[in-house]
Specification:
6 helices; mainly alpha; globular
């Protein structure tokens, strides 16, 4: 009730310990220019999610909706693996006060590589289509933006190591799992797209 101006505010000291939302929470060394850039790079997965939502809102295409579902699927896989493997983050996590969650695999790196893999395969789909080798001309703009996904993914991975949130092995594992999830989800999307097209023929 206190939210609406009714009653006293709760005693936050006695309340349950609050924790940050890990996908958008990032700390970096004060005065470190490269660290600042790496902090921005670490948040790029959120830009991927926002751009996908924007694309779905503007175009309302099945592929964009499936991509959002794929991002959710990829995150579920990451969290299941974290709790199954139960590998702690590297000792450097103490500097960023983020040692309370597991680190293997890096979900940030996994999401970035998942998106890059799916975008690359989607470009291949637009060139050849899911229903057969019907060659289409590739648009230079589409090729450029798809190519940008890979340096973004590399930046995300490097930032997680540089800032101390993950070890190199955890980032590499996240990248490998993200690529595998991207391939699997592309196959699912392609099958659903063909099924939907046939249903409306």
């Amino acid at each position: 009730k206190w939210l609406w101006g009714i009653g006293a505010e709760p005693d936050m000291a006695a309340a349950t310990l609050m924790k940050p939302f890990s996908l958008t929470y990032v700390r970096y060394p004060d005065g470190d220019v490269l660290g600042t850039l790496m902090a921005v790079g670490s948040l790029l997965p959120m830009a991927i999610i926002v751009s996908t939502v924007g694309s779905l809102t503007a175009r309302r295409e099945l592929w964009d909706a499936l991509t959002l579902l794929g991002i959710l699927f990829n995150e579920v896989v990451a969290q299941v693996l974290k709790h199954f493997i139960k590998e702690p983050r590297p000792p450097s996590c103490a500097a960023v006060d983020f040692c309370h969650t597991y680190g293997m695999p890096s979900s940030h790196a996994q999401l970035a590589v998942f998106a890059a893999t799916l975008a690359t395969l989607h470009l291949h789909r637009r060139h050849r289509t899911c229903r057969g080798p019907n060659i289409r001309a590739l648009e230079p703009v589409g090729v450029f933006f798809t190519a940008c996904y890979w340096p973004v993914a590399a930046t995300v991975g490097m930032s997680r190591v540089y800032l101390g949130y993950h070890s190199r092995a955890q980032v590499m594992a996240g990248a490998a799992v993200g690529m595998a999830c991207g391939v699997v989800w592309y196959a699912v999307c392609c099958w659903l797209s063909v099924a939907a097209a046939l249903a409306f023929e």
